[in-house]
Automatic annotation (TrEMBL):
One of its GO terms (cellular component) is large ribosomal subunit. Keywords: Plastid, Ribonucleoprotein, Ribosomal protein, RNA-binding, rRNA-binding. The globular domain of the protein is located near the polypeptide exit tunnel on the outside of the subunit, while an extended beta-hairpin is found that lines the wall of the exit tunnel in the center of the 70S ribosome. Part of the 50S ribosomal subunit. It comes from the Eukaryota. Its main location: plastid. This is Large ribosomal subunit protein uL22c. InterPro entries: Ribosomal_uL22, Ribosomal_uL22_bac/chlpt-type, Ribosomal_uL22_bac/org-type, Ribosomal_uL22_CS, Ribosomal_uL22_sf. NCBIfam families: rplV_bact (TIGR01044). One of its GO terms (biological process) is translation. The gene is rpl22. Belongs to the universal ribosomal protein uL22 family. The keyword DNA-binding does not apply. Residues 144-169 are annotated as: Disordered. It comes from Palmerella debilis subsp. serrata.
Length: 169
């Protein structure tokens, strides 16, 4: 038996958003770990400017989840939300008497990871075809050999039939 890891998470990334990292983190901390529908309501009602940019990234992550995983919006949960610092644009502002001062315009990168809670994370698969063994009445398998006896029957070992290794005295 082989355990296969299913893909349950998708993400969306908004890069170079002209906003301070602190202002975006103030909103991101409110939505981390919440469901998708609850997040949309929170972002629409909060009075911060960062909400619109984060709303667009959350909406994009939900669209990625529905197209890649085929998941329903009611099953989505924000599992991870990060705001990282981007590049800082440096601009000059002209001042009095022929001088200039430098203005820093910070940017940030917003990453939203959504998880579908309806999909199980791991799936058990068999490395052999189980229907081949479970359909037969007796646990006999044909074994190919060279020579006169082309087909020999071999009885499979069934540990539940004879009691296993712990049944011995």
């Amino acid at each position: 038996m082989v355990i296969k890891e299913n893909k349950t998470e998708v993400y969306a990334l908004g890069q170079h958003i002209s906003m301070s990292v602190h202002k975006a983190r103030r909103v991101i901390d409110q939505i981390r770990g919440r469901s998708y529908e609850e997040t949309l309501m929170i972002l629409e009602l909060m009075p911060y400017r960062a909400c619109y940019s984060i709303f667009k990234v959350v909406y994009s992550a939900a669209a990625n989840a529905s197209s890649l995983l085929g998941s329903n919006e009611a099953d989505l949960v924000i599992s991870k939300a990060e705001v990282n610092e981007g590049t800082t644009m440096k601009r000059l502002k002209l001042r009095a008497r022929g001088r200039s001062s430098r203005i820093k315009k910070p940017t940030c990168h917003i990453m939203i990871v959504m998880k579908d809670i309806s999909i199980s994370e791991y799936e058990e698969t068999f490395w052999f075809k189980p229907e081949k063994f479970f359909e037969r009445d007796s646990m006999q398998e044909l074994k190919k050999t060279k020579g006169k006896n082309r087909y020999k029957t071999r009885e499979e070992h069934d540990m539940y039939k004879n009691g296993g290794a712990w049944d011995k005295k």
